[in-house]
Amino acid sequence: MLLNQIKGVNDIQDINPSDYQELAQEIRDFLIEKLSHTGGHLGSNLGAVELTMALHLSLNLPEDKLIWDVGHQSYTHKLLTGRKDGFDNLRKFGGMSGFPKRKESECDCFDTGHSSTSISAGLGLVKARDIQGGTNTVVSVIGDGSLTGGMAYEALNNAAKLETNFIIVLNDNNMSISENVGGMSKYLNNVRTADAYLNIKEGIYNTLKEMPRGEKVVKGIRKAKSSFKQLVVPGMLFEDMGITYLGPVDGHNIPAMLRVLQEAKRTRNAVMVHVITQKGKGFAPAERHPARFHGAEPFDIETGLPAKPRTTANYTDIFSTVMTKLGARDEKVVAITAAMLDGTGLKRFRNMYPERLFDVGIAEEHAVTFAAGLAAGGLKPVVAIYSSFLQRAYDQILHDVCMQKLPVVFAIDRAGLVGSDGETHQGVFDLSYLSSIPDMCIMAPKNKWELSDMMKFAISFGAPIAIRYPRGEAYAGLKEYRAPIEMGKSELLYAEGEVCLMALGSMVKVAEQVKQLLNEAGYKCSIINARFAKPIDLEAVEWAVRNHKLIVTMEENVASGGYGEKVRDAVDGFKSDGKVLQIAVPDRYVEHGSVEQLMQEIGMDADSIVDRIRKEMENAR
Ligand SMILES: Cc1ncc(C[n+]2csc(CCOP(=O)(O)OP(=O)(O)O)c2C)c(N)n1
Ligand SMILES: CC(=O)[C@@H](O)[C@H](O)COP(=O)(O)O
Ligand SMILES: [Mg+2]
């Protein structure tokens, strides 16, 4: 097997060129087999096999620097840098990350996970090289979807004035997670469907040379290269900015890519190499359903179907259903997604009300200010964005939504630990960054019915409001507790005394388990479902202080700036010696693994919480 000859970095350079095709096939077979067990970002990786091989053949790693935008397509890069064994535990607890990690390999020069950062980071590495007199090559690989993100344009704008080499590879598979959207996508479509510029160029040169005085004409054209390109390349957007454009080149043809990369390396400025690939290439189910195989769960190789079909609704499903109902009831309800139509569950809303769904591309900042504009214009926008991606739009939430008290509903999915995507995607900061903003109201449902009730409350709230809910199965317990949602009011679930658990959102389910364990150990235990993280329910805090020896706050967010901190401050106000134990995500980045394993690791599973409570109670005796 050729793949077995690749034990470390640059070993691919010893492979005979006549074997490249076979190696690419072995890599595909390997990825399909491994990911059928572990899950992972299959489609993007299958599309980038030959591209990655060509880059590794052209570069000398780790001296040369290769930056992967988002990083979800870096699996072949991991294989070619000696990490084959890591695939057995890909994205598992303690195993190999699904994204580039500097601490994992010296060939991973920049950590990614969130989109559209690669050109900025690459340009930084170029400048660092130039200032220190280095000669290494720097390559940023960015997908067409990631090129919808604003940061990419800020970086291109900056890179355009560069006078040294910087290679930007545009890996264009005409897909984001769902269909790619917007003007840039349309522009790339035109470029892609035009005959390859390089072929046209050579074809025209050859024809001209046959003609009388043809050589002279060709020379003249070569001198006026850019105006010639203007004639044959639609748009010329990048060239006009000052960035050399090469391509489009077939991203599954290694010799063709090697030739273009050689040319790109000779350029004395920023150069964009436009590579055309197919998402899911070589695995029929992934070619047919690129969105489903973008981030795949373990699957059956024969059929492509999930190994474990899902039987219960997750919070995204509930959100999806309620959105269609809200859309039916009120024509003013509109929805916005930043390239996460499938992930946020807004596809159904799009299918029913296409004119009221806006997919703005990977542009969270724009999504929020756009929603502010929609609200200012009299509509009722719901912006559905994952917690960790919404981090990007802090200023837009503050400056464009909250300062004007505009009625925008933030549906914050993946709030809490997300599991196998790891530290870049854990949604454990939203309570903190949103809480600091005046006029922001934040809710979190304890179960699936409460998410529905909160959405109905939010849509008629008339001011900025956020609902955060986690990845995964929607809790179907506590159905009988369905008191109407009231602004800033919590819900008392059990009133027993001694220990009072004040739990927010997903932690209510854990609180039930904690209560049972505490009861078994002989402690009485009350539970308050917080419902609101801002404003907190001060009356409930006072009741908890007056009637319990210990208050335990529970939230799937970092402690700093979270719900527990606010409760602690309030307790101090009511009773200076009131005891509060804060259960929250610790002040460090939480890596990948299953949510259950991670909760255990950070001491937020029921057993760990009970241990801590018992210690506190024993100390108090
Ligand atoms: C800031 C941010 N928003 C959203 C995402 C989710 N996301 C990951 S990959 C992706 C699509 C990327 O498309 P493209 O760059 O074309 O890569 P492809 O998957 O097509 O190879 C999206 C929206 C993200 N990682 N970061
Ligand atoms: C790479 C990336 O950012 C997305 O593909 C992300 O992995 C999606 O996560 P979900 O599976 O939670 O939708
Ligand atoms: Mg793409």
UniProtKB/TrEMBL annotation:
All copies of domain Transketolase-like pyrimidine-binding, residue ranges: 313-477
TM stretches of this protein: none
InterPro entries: Dxylulose-5-P_synthase, THDP-binding, Transketo_C/PFOR_II, Transketolase-like_Pyr-bd, Transketolase_BS, Transketolase_C, Transketolase_CS
Pfam family, one: Transketolase_C
Source superkingdom: Bacteria
EC numbers for this chain: 2.2.1.7
Residues that, per the record, bind Mg(2+): 144, 173
Biological processes annotated in GO: isopentenyl diphosphate biosynthetic process, methylerythritol 4-phosphate pathway; terpenoid biosynthetic process; thiamine biosynthetic process
GO molecular function: 1-deoxy-D-xylulose-5-phosphate synthase activity; magnesium ion binding; thiamine pyrophosphate binding
UniProt keywords, alphabetically: Isoprene biosynthesis, Magnesium, Metal-binding, Thiamine biosynthesis, Thiamine pyrophosphate, Transferase
Pathway(s) of this molecule: Metabolic intermediate biosynthesis; 1-deoxy-D-xylulose 5-phosphate biosynthesis; 1-deoxy-D-xylulose 5-phosphate from D-glyceraldehyde 3-phosphate and pyruvate: step 1/1
Record-listed thiamine diphosphate binding positions: 72, 113-115, 145-146, 173, 283, 364
Gene Ontology, cellular component aspect: cytosol
Cofactor(s) this protein cannot do without: Mg(2+); thiamine diphosphate
UniProt cofactor note: Binds 1 Mg(2+) ion per subunit.
Catalysed reaction, written as an equation: D-glyceraldehyde 3-phosphate + pyruvate + H(+) = 1-deoxy-D-xylulose 5-phosphate + CO2
PANTHER family registered for this protein in UniProt: 1-D-DEOXYXYLULOSE 5-PHOSPHATE SYNTHASE-RELATED (PTHR43322), 1-DEOXY-D-XYLULOSE-5-PHOSPHATE SYNTHASE, CHLOROPLASTIC (PTHR43322:SF5)
Similarity comment: Belongs to the transketolase family. DXPS subfamily.
The protein's assembly and partners: Homodimer.
Free-text function comment from the UniProt entry: Catalyzes the acyloin condensation reaction between C atoms 2 and 3 of pyruvate and glyceraldehyde 3-phosphate to yield 1-deoxy-D-xylulose-5-phosphate (DXP).
Protein name as annotated: 1-deoxy-D-xylulose-5-phosphate synthase
Organism expressing this protein natively: Parablautia muri
